[in-house]
Input
Amino acid sequence: MRSTASILRILAFSIISIVTLEWVYETGAEWAMFTQPIFWLIVGSLIFFAIALEVCIGALDAVLFKTLSAEKQESYLAKQAVRKANQFKWFKDKYKALLGSKAVEEEHEIILDHNYDGIKELDNNLPPWWVYMFYATILFGVVYLIRFEVLGDYDQEEEYEIAVAEAKLEIEEWKKTAKDLVDFNTVELLTEAMDLKAGETIFSGNCVACHKASGGGSIGPNLTDDHWILGGGIKNVFKTISEGGRDGKGMIAWKSELKPAEMAQVASYILSLHGTNPPDGKDPEGEIWVDPDAPIEEATIKVIDGNEVEIIIENQPVTGDVVKEENKVKSNQ
Output
């Protein structure tokens, strides 16, 4: 375990484990290592077992070494010393060659003429990492000059505008799935059982005192019929919950108590009560509300006489015939 090879094996195993787990973990566009705490628990467990395995191998090696005779132990230690000396020999020799350094006995060949109170200077080569990094900066500068100054690629202002446009698109996509950013203009009817159950819970905790558990109405109006005081549909109901009812006589505004997502859930639950007609329901209040965007579901043609035909268009039948005067069309032949 104390050998360089053991440390390198554990390091390589750790990297492979992290990459493999990140690859198999389904987290969409997010990194599992940043969003899933169990990720590091699994990685830590794997690394722990790898270390334990290396320790066991080292202990077994020590036990087998003690079983050898004194002569074989000396031979084994000599081979280990040679192997350790030759470890990474190619890299060491290559780095030394790149440095161009001289042995102490040969330093007189690279001594400069500078002499300051007996202190002399050696003309050693610069470290290779520094030299090659300097060459890389020169290459980068040439490419940059050709691309942006000669070929006229995008400038900083264009890059900024592109980045801002991309950010705005990402924000718009994010808003589509950010439930707490909805308002009465963007809210949509929720039909998932989980959302309706959450809406029922909110309704039971805040609304039953005025509307009853059935939605039939008490102090507040009946929420199950076709009549609405401030308009029906998900957008109007959401707005009424958020901003409150009529001044001085309607319910309070709930926007300071409920999140937008919660108001969308309770509004959707209220609309799910439409047409249930509870036996204890209040008399209708307000006007019959027909969704102007609802598709035409039924059209009745009634012949009045030989020259006159009455067409009745019904675009939202729920609890009965919901027909408004403007939906009646008379045709004279």
About this structure: Residues 298-332 form one domain.
